[in-house]
Amino acid sequence: GIQVEQSPPDLILQEGANSTLRCNFSDSVNNLQWFHQNPWGQLINLFYIPSGTKQNGRLSATTVATERYSLLYISSSQTTDSGVYFCAVDGSGGSNYKLTFGKGTLLTVNP
Amino acid sequence: NAGVTQTPKFQVLKTGQSMTLQCAQDMNHEYMSWYRQDPGMGLRLIHYSVGAGITDQGEVPNGYNVSRSTTEDFPLRLLSAAPSQTSVYFCATGQGNQPQHFGDGTRLSIL
Predict the structure, then answer these.
(1) A99, A100, A103: best mutation site toward chain B, by most B Cβ within 10 Å?
(2) Burial class of B69 by CB neighbour count within 10 A (0 to 12, 13 to 18, 19+)
């Protein structure tokens, strides 16, 4: 099956700093999503981005499907950004929902 | 509008007991799925359904049964619980080329 690798596994920032999280995948995909799991365990969808660039406030994401990677940018980080960020893809070519998750990036933002 | 509702939030079982994890959605989404999250392993797909009466296996289906008699509900059954099934279970829904929505999870411990 498709492999998803995220880097870095851990990241510690001071409030106000910027960061880039990376997601590499091993095959072509028809669905790529970024999620934030907050300290209470809730999974929040950030972006549905199988290709191209999207922005939502301080967060933006870019997927280069031909090179099999996606980047999540966090600018002016806040303590509420802390948590685990997951990249998930579906490469099955049909369902668009059989997600394979990476192991995540644990982000800690200190005040 | 509750979105995706999972019950119970916490459960402790003894080895060999059976139970059903409930998932209900009020968004009229065609697609529903169950994932388990174990430490350091991200989320893995257990079973999924593309509509009422249609289910299929994901990456880790052994030990779990599902059925989908209505659009709204997608219960996950453990017939004979094993300690290896100790995990956090998430239900998700989706529709078309849209982001998936996750419930808040059920934390299950099997002694």
Answers:
(1) A99
(2) exposed
CB contact under 8 A, A33 and B43: no
Interchain pair B43, A96: CB under 8 A: no
Split at pLDDT 50, 70, 90, the class of A93 is: low
A99 Cβ under 8 Å from any chain B Cβ: yes
Cβ contacts of A101 within 8 Å, gap of 6 or more:
A4, A86, A87, A88, B35, B42, B43, B44
> What pLDDT score was predicted for residue A106?
96
Rounded Cα distance, A1 and A10, in Å = 25
Cis peptide bond prior to B75, omega within 30° of 0: no
Place of tokens 């059925």: B67
Encode A69-80: b = buried (16+ Cβ within 10 Å), e = exposed. bbbbebeebeee
CA triple A55-A75-A27, angle to 5 deg: 55
- pLDDT by residue (tens digit) across A32-91? 999 999 999 999 999 999 999 999 999 999 999 999 999 999 999 999 999 999 999 987
